[in-house]
Each structure stands twice: as structure tokens, then as C-alpha cells.
Prior knowledge:
Distance between the termini: 57 Å
Structural class: mainly alpha
CATH topology: Rhopdopsin 7-helix transmembrane proteins
CATH architecture: Up-down Bundle
Strand content: 5-15%
Order of helices and strands: HHEEHHHEHHHHEE
Organism: Caenorhabditis nigoni
Keywords: Membrane, Transmembrane, Transmembrane helix
Protein name: G-protein coupled receptors family 1 profile domain-containing protein
InterPro entries: 7TM_GPCR_serpentine_rcpt_Srj
Transmembrane segments: 12-30, 42-72, 92-115, 127-149, 198-223, 244-267, 279-303
Helix content: over 70%
CATH class: Mainly Alpha
Low-confidence stretches: 316-335
Strand order of the largest sheet: 1-2-3
Amino acid sequence: MYVNWLHYSIPKISFVLSFISNPVFIYLICSNKKVLFGSYRYLLVFFAVFNLCASVADLLIPVSVFCYHYAFVTWVVEGPFSVRSEYGEIPLSFRCSFIAGTYGILNIHFVFRFLTLKSNNIINDYFMPYGLIFSIAYVIFHMFIWSLIDFYCLHSAPEMRDYIRLPFKELYNESISDVNFVAGLFSEASPSIVARSWAGILLLTIIASYSMTLYFVLGYKIVTGLNIKSITMSRQTTQMQKQLFKALAIQTIIPICVSFMPCSLSFYGAALRIDFMNWVYWASAVAVSMFPFLDPMAIIFFLPALRRRIMNPIGLGRTSVSVVTHQYSEASNHT
């Protein structure tokens, strides 16, 4: 089903850019001799692999968002899972779960950066392999819970299809009976549908809200910790820690802008009967598809050693590596 050329083109362009930027990012992280990332290297690679998986999911299960009065609908636009089937909502729920996966990975990043400053022995002694295995399991758990909420609380129903049938037909000239979707209907419906819609949206909000709270609390503690630790750390180590935190801050702002805010507008716009213009809804699906390639670019941009590798791939000039025990440091450049 065709929405418009922006909705059709941007996710596909994002897919191509993701499969360029993330492999390049993995190469830079694994081959860099100027920055000693330690165990953090594996967490960054895991994030890049997750981004690639999210891009594949977005290509195979492209979605759009439609809202009408008290209903919001996330539906599969095209591809092998677009035709309505008995189990068609399972891949759609899986696709939506990558939003929760992003929250989970950022939670782990903030905890890692915090422990690096407060109790670095834990990172050095246990992160490989136990910490990495726990991180992967934690992200999968996040995605699993989100999928269950979508599948059991926000699954489609004949009453939902009847509620949005005419406006959906008028806008897209397609029948809502032919598509797979998950939805919430918050009023003007049977009590059971209204109850499970509110339950689903509140549970999803809890997942997002506790993650956002963790970002701000640990972010504050990391900033204050850096200010205290900078007295005893070397200048290069302090600079690297601040650069890594800036990159993490940008990594956090990106999903807030392209995921948390668009989802909240869709959810609560329908729940509170706030009618936004239609482009706000389909643009939210487009924005989510951009995260996998924006994420590695943020880290590359804010880490000068990686940025210089992109700008100067031949690596002209002599370099030396500064090693700081249990920390990450950037090499000093000599001209």
C-alpha cells in the first residue's frame, strides 16, 4: 500500500545508509589503535549489530501510523507480512519491539559508563563474557515484553476495524479488512477493548518512562563523577570520557526525538482526542527508521579519533598510543 513518496523512500534510503555506516563503524572500533576502548568496544559492536537488525526489520515489515478520533493504528504497509493472516500481527509486534530494544541498549550504555567511573573493577573482571551476555539477554527481554504487550493488549478486533473502516478507506482507498495492524481504541467502544487499550498504552509508557528516568539520573551522576574524577585522571583520559559521554547523550536525544516523542503523540493524541495533521502520524514511522544510521554517525562525529579516520583514511602522520590502565585514552598526534 502506497502512503506517499517520502514514506516510501526515506526508510529505504535509511536502510542503505545503515548498511554503510554501521559496518564502517564496526571496522573503526575494532581496528582503531589510537583509542583503547577496552570492553566498551564489544558493547558498541553489539549496538551496531542491533542497528543492522532493526534496519532489516524495517525493510521487511515497513509500517505506518493512522489515527482517527479515539483510535490509533500501526499497520504493515507492504512486503511479505502486509496481507492479513491469522498470525500476521506477530511479525508486526516484533517490528515494534525494536523501539524497546533501543531503550534497553541505551540503558546498558548508561549503566556501563556509570560503572566505569564508580566501580571499574566490575567492568574489568566480569563484563566479558558475563556482562555482554547479560546485556544481550536484557535487550531481548525488553523486546519480548514489548511484543507481548502489543500482541495481547493492542491486537486487532472486528470492532476496531469497523470503527476506522470509512476514514481509512477515504484516506488510502484501501480496505482495513485486508491489512495486519495493532491498535488502541480508547473510547466509543466496548469496555473490554477500551480497558486493554489503556492497559497496553500505559505498560508501554512505563517501559519508555523508566528508561528515560534512568538516562537522566545516571547522566547526572556521570557528569558529576567526571567533574570529581578529572582531578585524578590524566587529561587525555578525562577528555575521552567526556567525548564518550557527549556521544552517548546524542545517542539518547536521537531516540527521544525519533521514537519516544512520535509514539507518545500517536498514543495519547488518540487517547485524549487530540487530532494532529495526518503527516505527523506517518512521519513518526519514517523517523523511527532513521535511528539505525544516525546512531553510529553520532559516535563517529563526537570521537575525534574516529572522525579523523573518516576524514583521513590513509592515516598520514605519525601517531602514538597512550595507554591508561582500566580506562580509554586517545593517542596524541604528532605533526
